[in-house]
Amino acid sequence: MFLNRKELNTMLSPSKIKNKLATRYIGQTICYFPQLSSTNNIAKQKAQKGKSRTPEGTLIIAEKQLGGKGRSGKVWLSPVGGIWLSIVLYPKTVSTHVPLITIMTAVAVARTLNKLFPIKVQIKWPNDILIEKRKVCGILTETGTEEKNLKWVIVGIGINADNNSTELPEEIRNRSISLKEITGQPIPRIKLIQYLCSEFEMFYDLWQKKAFSAIIEEWKLYSYTLGEKVRVDIGNRIISGEAIDITDRGALVLKRDDGQIEEIISGTVLK
Ligand code: BTN
Known about the structure:
Elements lengths: L4 H5 L4 H5 L11 E7 L2 H10 L10 E7 L17 E7 L9 H18 L5 E3 L3 E4 L2 E13 L2 E11 L10 H4 L5 H5 L5 H20 L3 H10 L7 E5 L4 E9 L5 E5 L4 E4 L3 E2 L2
Parallel strand pairs: 1-2
Antiparallel strand pairs: 2-3, 3-7, 4-5, 5-6, 6-7, 8-9, 8-12, 9-10, 10-11
Helix pairs in contact: 4-7, 4-8
The site of biotin (BTN) has 21 residues, from helix 3, strand 3, strand 6 and strand 7.
């Protein structure tokens, strides 16, 4: 047995998630695992089999990940009680618009949390969901191409929900928090997943229609970053300046300390 008795009692169940699920395709197929390495890895394997075997919107969900992946090759700790899921997509558009899928996912998560809990939710560019300045959710998007054509996109979402941040190692404990710790109550994970599927579908439909400015306007409502003095790690250097805008492609517009304007399409905001 992988999980203890208490954990078994509060497990997720595909049939309970699908019951009352108000979507057309997101979450209508669910592959559920008590534990696995990474939902993104399994989602990738399934996406490679194609749409006929793994329909668009398929969810891969696990109670626990043993090899959860974060951005920039980091480990993502995924104990029982969290929400660890990946969504399989086959977009018809070109890869340059993919960063916006991550942005729209952050908006879908923020709106879901806002609907369920009376708490202020913020998004740190591009896609960290913060509550009280601590990270409650991370998003990892991965893509597959064939002869330079975009074939599939996997959106991995990790939410610290009904787990405790005390289960996380010291170095991330101070920067992370779970929904249970914030609300002081058990988290209705099934309801949260159902709401998230609906919000995600609404925003993914907008993305497919290329309604990018509508997505960005909504993102701005939750922004933790805009108007702030920030330092952004873009891999080969760190840029300091004021975050003044976000473009329709999801790039952060920085007014650098030397007065120059720079657009950053990918990076990590250090502050
Ligand atoms: C980040 O570093 O902020 C991104 C974290 C993404 C974690 C989720 S959990 C579900 C999915 N499977 C993974 O291995 N990673 C993502």
